[in-house]
């Protein structure tokens, strides 16, 4: 597919070499860049068109979608609003505005935009899918399911509807049904990350961390910065008793999304588990109070000191540690004298 995109770009470049202000070629080139995920280049193409023709609706909407994909949501919303001021029923601008509000988690507002599209075109699949997503996020799951079913009546292989239904049944822990739906989506698009994430989660919940980890590996090979994939991989290796490896994945997720609660919780639980284990060990060997326990204590303390992350979690100063060792040695000497 990428090769076809580049071939099309080359054809439009030939046109633009002859006529650098060819509006259709610039718009088509921008649309291809959107499909490729090259959003900055898409933005540049649409801006060229708008500079030539400020009223070009296709370029205005294209610019809105480029801004949306660059996470510039306020600017995108303003751009779509510019289109709607002239044409308040413009489908692309209505759907674009709804998409922005979905990202901002303003689901009720998003539904209003999708409904405006569906009033005119009741079978508009994109608006139906996005409305179902918004409904699911406002706990209107049955209404969302009805829409997914309607979409699948129109298009039985619709990937988004299959995944939407898969998510619905996953929430109900009906793993068999959910798995069938995700696999159906993957038959149409073998590299669909949302379907792969669903399958990976099912395997993890069913106690199959190795299989789950393999699916997360595939997700990360497609998108190395996928936060859900990194967190899922971390969870799967925890189940395989690979805590250090899990910590690495949680850290990578937090580099991309520093406020991600799932990654923060996973990391904190792992660190606290290490701390609790070490402190329990210290408590046990302190109570025993033999020569062997002193050696053990020193070994444990050394391990803690070597681990900077662990040390920050333990409220014991160097002086307290030395005092503890000294007391234990004195106790040991007294025990020997009594013997």
Automatic annotation (TrEMBL):
Q: Which SUPFAM superfamilies match?
A: TPR-like
UniProt keyword Transmembrane helix present = yes
- List the keywords (alphabetical): Membrane, Repeat, TPR repeat, Transmembrane, Transmembrane helix
Name of one Pfam family that matches: TPR_8
The answer to keyword Transmembrane helix applying to this record is yes
Taxonomically, the superkingdom here is Archaea
Q: Where are the transmembrane segments?
A: 281-301
Q: Where is the signal peptide?
A: none
TPR repeat ranges are 23-56, 57-90, 91-124, 125-158, 227-260
* PANTHER family noted in UniProt: CELLULOSE SYNTHASE OPERON PROTEIN C, TPR REPEAT-CONTAINING PROTEIN MJ0263
Protein name per UniProt: Uncharacterized protein
Organism annotation: Nitrosopumilus zosterae
């Amino acid at each position: 597919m990428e090769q076809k995109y580049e071939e099309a770009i080359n054809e439009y470049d030939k046109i633009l070499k002859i006529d650098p202000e060819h509006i259709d070629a610039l718009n088509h080139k921008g649309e291809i860049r959107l499909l490729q995920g090259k959003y900055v280049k898409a933005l540049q193409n649409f801006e060229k068109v708008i500079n030539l023709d400020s009223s070009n609706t296709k370029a205005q909407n294209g610019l809105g979608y480029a801004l949306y994909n660059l996470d510039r949501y306020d600017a995108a919303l303003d751009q779509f609003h510019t289109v709607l001021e002239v044409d308040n029923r413009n489908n692309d601008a209505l759907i674009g505005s709804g998409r922005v509000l979905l990202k901002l988690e303003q689901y009720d507002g998003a539904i209003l935009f999708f409904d405006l599209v569906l009033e005119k075109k009741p079978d508009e699949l994109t608006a139906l899918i996005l409305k179902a997503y918004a409904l699911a996020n406002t706990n209107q799951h049955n209404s969302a399911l009805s829409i997914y079913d309607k979409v699948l009546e129109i298009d039985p292989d619709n990937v988004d509807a299959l995944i939407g239904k898969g998510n619905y049944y996953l929430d109900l822990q009906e793993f068999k049904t959910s798995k069938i739906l995700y696999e159906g989506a993957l038959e149409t698009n073998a590299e669909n990350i949302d379907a792969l994430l669903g399958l990976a989660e099912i395997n993890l919940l069913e106690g199959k961390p190795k299989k789950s980890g393999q699916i997360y590996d595939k997700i990360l090979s497609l998108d190395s910065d996928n936060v859900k994939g990194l967190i899922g991989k971390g969870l799967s290796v925890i189940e395989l008793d690979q805590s250090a490896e899990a910590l690495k994945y949680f850290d990578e997720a937090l580099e991309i999304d520093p406020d991600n609660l799932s990654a923060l919780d996973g990391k904190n639980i792992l660190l606290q588990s290490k701390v609790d284990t070490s402190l329990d060990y210290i408590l046990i060997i302190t109570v025993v109070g033999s020569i062997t326990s002193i050696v053990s204590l020193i070994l444990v303390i050394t391990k803690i000191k070597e681990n900077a992350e662990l040390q920050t979690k333990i409220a014991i100063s160097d002086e307290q540690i030395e005092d503890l060792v000294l007391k234990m040695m004195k106790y040991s000497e007294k025990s020997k004298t009594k013997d």
